[in-house]
Amino acid sequence: MTQPLIDVRNVSHRYDQHLVLEDVSFRIDKGSFVGLVGPNGSGKTTIIKLLLGIEKLQKGSIDAFGKPIQKFTNKGHISFVSQKANSFNRGFPATAKEVVGMGLISRQKMWNPSQKKFEHLIFEALDQVNMMEYANTNIGDLSGGQQQRIFIARAIVNKPQLLILDEPTVGVDFENVGHFYRLLSELNRDLGITLVLVSHDIGTITTHVTDLLCLNKSVHYHGNPSEFEQMSDEERSKLYGHNMHTITHDH
Length: 251
Ligand SMILES: Nc1ncnc2c1ncn2[C@@H]1O[C@H](COP(=O)(O)OP(=O)(O)OP(=O)(O)O)[C@@H](O)[C@H]1O
Prior knowledge:
This protein is of the alpha/beta class. Helix content is 30%, strand content 24%. The relative contact order is 0.18. Residues 6-241 form the ABC transporter domain.
């Protein structure tokens, strides 16, 4: 069996006395597109924070790229797009190209927009999200869906192997959500980037991901999304760990 990119084993986590993760185990294989779903407060953000090393591991073990998370230094292997990424307003004084360049800063502290040797990386990332023609447009003048693409470009400019996105479609209108999922599928299929998409919109997500992981303090389901879809509402509610009714969308 090939080594997974991420191997989470028997992880439990508390905030003070409040147990939010209990004996959680799962693996993320290279090349997969994982939908991490669960109701509000089910521990999704906590597990992501543990993977990113923002929250300290209390119990169990996590290996990232074959190394215990405590010893893993993230040199661009894992990239993250937060739900709050969409925080640029119309007055923000940066072009799309400059925003993508900000993703390089962590790798190259002395980076500045005039350094030609990094420009090709920025244009490559813009091309990968089909936003080349907007390189010199002010970020605040782009639509929500276009800004979202720029944030993805910023996240992939360091060529990560694993990209984690937290509720990236919040506030994006329905038509753009469809385009957005298509873009993610292209990044996964064509560039081979392993994806973890955190969402509580279980209806939309199951049609796009290769693996579905339902978390509600513990792992309630981890497997094939189409097998999950074929179950009755009642069975799925049990696995999801919460009352649910799947809303399916036509694409
Ligand atoms: N820093 C913290 N201190 C104390 N409690 C916390 C902290 N962070 C999260 N919690 C609590 O832990 C539980 C799990 O939170 P978490 O954010 O991991 O869930 P989530 O599934 O991401 O929720 P949502 O979908 O609402 O973002 C919740 O009850 C939350 O209130």
